[in-house]
Write a sequence for this structure.
């Protein structure tokens, strides 16, 4: 038994080191949901009879300044997203999103809605790493997103090792692309469907690595990427590579607070975004202890 535990620790340690190197040293080896829900998910689901309400506030300090492919400029655009997640069983939950955007001259705009069922490997199975599967489906208006209808498939893997925590979201996205302008030449249409709005399954990974020196907070880095369609990845210039130094505050077991600022490393990425997540747990059943996640990285 001791040898098995030691081996599992070694496996976790190797995974942690590999993730750290990937995040910090080799960003091209690794799309932050269009800047509306910038978060890395843990494998753990919400407890039954518990509702988590979250407000995602994201402000683009430096982004696009002109309308591109029918989408409004992102610079100085404020995104407010309401996320509601209800625990169903010990291994499943259901989430719902309301996306909004605000920018001077445009006012407050409804962007779209998504629904997200998620299941996980039960804790009673005693797997060495947490594993869950999320499916997020919904619509967003073409002024703010391309594609508009999308289905996001997100296998999630995570692990806590002492004060360290890592999570990898191997997100894949299928969407219904907005057609290009009729005036486009065949060559322009080819580039559009490759670099702007692919019709196939795209790869949009995310990951986080945090360290918790105190029971009141942890700090770390979050990564969000977009590589394009499987089998036809876009050039580095058209990829999205974004890094967020973050702090998670543990002021109460009923609250979660995440604060960060993200820098884009490629020409197609918004260059500076400031984000915050404020969440609160409501229990609809008998009072019970809320699980204290080592890092609040939902």
């Amino acid at each position: 038994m001791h040898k098995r535990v030691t081996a599992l620790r070694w496996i976790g340690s190797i995974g942690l080191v590999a993730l750290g190197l990937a995040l910090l040293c080799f960003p091209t080896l690794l799309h932050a949901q269009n800047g509306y829900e910038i978060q890395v998910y843990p494998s753990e689901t919400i407890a039954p009879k518990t509702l988590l309400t979250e407000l995602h506030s994201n402000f683009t300090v430096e982004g696009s300044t002109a309308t591109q492919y029918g989408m409004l400029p992102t610079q100085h655009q404020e995104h407010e997203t309401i996320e509601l997640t209800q625990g169903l069983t010990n291994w499943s939950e259901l989430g719902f999103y309301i996306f909004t955007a605000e920018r001077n001259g445009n006012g407050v705009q409804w962007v779209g809605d998504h629904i997200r069922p998620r299941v996980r490997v039960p804790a009673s199975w005693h797997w060495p790493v947490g594993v869950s599967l999320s499916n997020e489906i919904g619509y967003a208006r073409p002024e703010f997103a391309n594609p508009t209808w999308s289905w996001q498939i997100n296998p999630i893997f995570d692990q806590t090792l002492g004060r360290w925590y890592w999570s990898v979201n191997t997100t894949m996205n299928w969407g219904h692309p907005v057609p290009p302008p009729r005036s486009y030449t065949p060559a322009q249409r080819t580039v559009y469907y490759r670099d702007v709005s692919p019709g196939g399954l795209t790869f949009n990974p995310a990951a986080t690595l945090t360290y918790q020196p105190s029971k009141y907070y942890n700090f770390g880095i979050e990564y969000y990427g977009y590589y394009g369609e499987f089998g036809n990845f876009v050039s580095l210039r058209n990829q999205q590579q974004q890094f967020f130094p973050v702090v998670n505050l543990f002021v109460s077991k009923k609250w979660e607070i995440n604060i960060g600022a993200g820098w884009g490393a490629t020409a197609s990425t918004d260059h500076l975004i400031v984000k915050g997540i404020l969440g609160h747990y409501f229990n609809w059943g008998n009072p019970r202890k809320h699980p204290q996640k080592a890092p609040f990285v939902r």
Notes: Residues 2-283 form a domain with the Porin fold (CATH 2.40.160.40). The chain has one domain: 2-283.
